[in-house]
């Protein structure tokens, strides 16, 4: 890559095989998005008219009645929940987070009370809503949901994500059937899901997406769904949503990203990603203490990853020390390490510039070769690594 802006900002030229991570800059935007953002920045626009354009594109791609662009998917959770409580009552919108006189209970399965960098429940609660957990972490049936609904229930939030418990929970279609029979809107957090139409089609009233994840848009969130609820959520820009507003560049970039998604050669991209995975599997084959396996995406996005399992006795390094070694040096490779305590990490192929797959393969060979040649097993206590990360966060910007 020539004219890489990162050098002038004193930033490391990282290669991301971790996935669409906010902490790494989320995703790589296609040229159409870059051009659209650059084209609108020097112009004035009428924001409500631009959001109306966004509504039409979102409606087409998501099979929704209407939609708009907000700051992020987590902003979408807050404004959609707020909208479900206030409707289009402008006075109520200005009063939040005081919910006096409004239905203010919001249901969420206990197994969905996860964090994506911040807690989902916090995104609900900061509107003034009362979070009502449904069922147990690994068990939520129809009767749990029916029993949790009261005359104060405003909405239910359902999270579709690899972060959530993946068994024992009521499926979305049944969840929607129960809620819809009681006239209660279901808001689906589908931040990272490729399926733009399926959740509304299963009966959800609102579906929320991140523009900056698989879509490759600028940092923004997409709110799609039933027109009255989308409007009520949009009106929160005059209330608790003000700090979550998105600018013209976010709106135009999201429209461009959705249109690019519509035209994208999805099979071609899948084939290219498969080539990367095959290369890495070949690189990792027949190495002592290394087991590499292709695994499908847990929520059925059309995406496979490689799981790299490390036996420290044979490889002479732990999975986390290997992850840290890969992330160091002049060509840092960042792997997907959120399950690293099990002794494995993942490699995600969807955020690479062409050619970087070879750098990744070379870095794997280099670090595994170095470790194998070492006389001692490189094994930092996991707790020390965790503490170091927390310390780094706590002492920022030092
Ligand atoms: C990433 C993510 C979010 C947050 O999305 P942002 O657009 O970055 O705010 C919310 N929910 C889930 C399930 C996510 O994966």
From TrEMBL:
The keyword Transferase applies. The keyword Transcription regulation does not apply. Pfam families: SelA. Keywords: Aminotransferase, Pyridoxal phosphate, Transferase. Its cofactor is pyridoxal 5'-phosphate. One of its GO terms (molecular function) is transaminase activity. SUPFAM superfamilies: PLP-dependent transferases. Belongs to the SelA family. This is Aminotransferase class V-fold PLP-dependent enzyme. It comes from Alsobacter ponti.
